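Support request, priority: normal
Reporter: lab tech (M.K.)
Component: structure prediction queue

Hi team, I submitted a job for SKP1/BTB/POZ domain superfamily from Arabidopsis suecica yesterday, and the status page still shows it as pending. I've pasted the exact input below so you can check whether something in the sequence is tripping the parser. The sequence length should be 614 residues. Please let me know if I need to resubmit or if it's stuck on your end.
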Amino acid sequence: MKFMELGFRPDTFYTVESVRSVSSDLLNDLIIQVKSTKYLLHKFPMLSKCLRLKNLVSSQETETSQEQQVIQLVDFPGETEAFELCAKFCYGITITLCAHNVVAVRCAAEYLGMTEEVELGETENLVQRLELFLTSCVFKSWRDSFVTLQTTKVLPLWSEDLGITNRCIEAIANGVSVSPGEDFSRQLETGLLRNQSRRRRDEILCNAGGSKAENLRWWGEDLAELGLDLYRRTMVAIKSSNRKISPRLIGNALRIYASKWLPSIEERSADSNLVLESVISLLPEEKSSVPCSFLLQLLKMANVMNVSHSSKMELAIKAGNQLDKATVSELLIPLSDKSGMLYDVDVVKMMVKQFLSHISPEIRPTRTRTEHRRSRSEENINLEEIQEIRGSLSTSSSPPLLSKVAKLVDSYLQEIARDVNLTVSKFVELAESIPDVSRICHDDLYKAIDIYLQVHEKIEKCERKTLCRILDCKKLSVEASKKAAQNELLPLRVIVQILFVEQARATIATTTNNITINETAVLKRSFTTRREEGIEEEATTTNNITTNETAVLKRSFTTRREEGIEEERDEAKPSGGFLQSTPSRFMALCAIPRQPKKMLCKLLSISRSLSQRI
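Reply from support: The job had stalled in the queue. We restarted it manually and it finished. Here are the results:
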């Protein structure tokens, strides 16, 4: 920490019965009252440097009273220590100034009028010297700037008027913005490494290009010591600094401050609302700058405190953008209203909506209740629905994040289903906020419905049907279908539909197996027949080629050699043409009809027989 010494004389102030005096051969001719302390001083050294005292003494001398009057400094800023330091400066006694007392002395000097207007000598007065110390030493150091800023809360109005508060905040913001690649001496001067051990400082000195987050992570802990107003102003200055600070560092600093001043929901106070509002307003706009868990913790506090609706919505939007990183326990946000419900389902639904619009805006939401009623009340499944059942058993093309959020919501529904005051409409609205493509399997959704029916056994029949319409029986696994078929809490219509889907699955599996066996047999017979025909044709062709070649050889001996060679070439052409046409004939034989009309008729007959049984 930097300090400055002024004066060269030894300290000659002493105390007698709560009266402070100065050892001198001259009689005391000036009495000043500061707070509860009385000072016996001399006019010449004091009036030569303090304009206010000079004016007060001049006004007393015009009065006719012969008694020496006491000058009352009623509105003096600060305590008597600051006044005594100013008085010692006037006497030339050595004083030591540092970040802990410079604000108090600066305010006292301003009050006493210790400016260059009243200075008779060539040296600067106390105000000018204090400003030089602040500018050249205090504001060049993070530590000194931070300590000085903390002392301004004792004299907030004077510090604001003199510009000390703003200059301290600006110095701190610049200190945070220092890059890790700067010279080590500069980092030491600004206090960036003050919390590091000597060994660690040596390591950073050897590796000047270290991580910025590693070197600047500590400043959030320092700023957490500030009061709310100073902290908010400092964070605003840091965010608006010309040198960009990582949003993650700002988010980390906010987490440290919130953990210090917002310990828990149970221990909240009147000031907690202001702290929470300020932390929310300072949150960075960038995604993932603040963990989703921290945002949901703030949202839980905001839901039980008297926080503005806009602040709650801001938290919900920020948390919704990274909902895939949340857990079920973090989503259990308590609700403090007259509805009697334990958890805030509406804010979770808003986060789901925000996540869907942020990740994949083109995905359609889940079908409405009318569409569910129209499509799932049918008790006949045609060929297209059979193909849909087969497709549901395969891997879904849903994006991984959407599937993760869908599973998260289904698990959340299982937890809130135990709330006896949760209405069917709230349950269904949240379940339908997830798109159909995101739910690969409805097993978790069935578990949530089952828990709700067990807790709410007295709900109306129509509500029971409304609740079960969100369940897609075609997306239930075999194990879940077996349990659901034996669940007496489900409507009979749903149980029949589950049994029908399982029968359709079994029929498809049998039909597929038969089709595979029939196709294999047909292919085997066709290849056997084609092989026999190919052997016969090959034998006939070989005999024809042998006869022709014998005739050509006989004629070649009775004619000239050149004519024999030409005739031999002519006779070889028919044989080559036959061999070239063989592959096309072979490919024609491989084209085996699969009788599609017969297969479709068979599937339709199966569907009709199943419909008659139901």
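The chain has 29 helices and seven strands. The mean pLDDT is 78. Let us know if anything else looks off. Ticket resolved.
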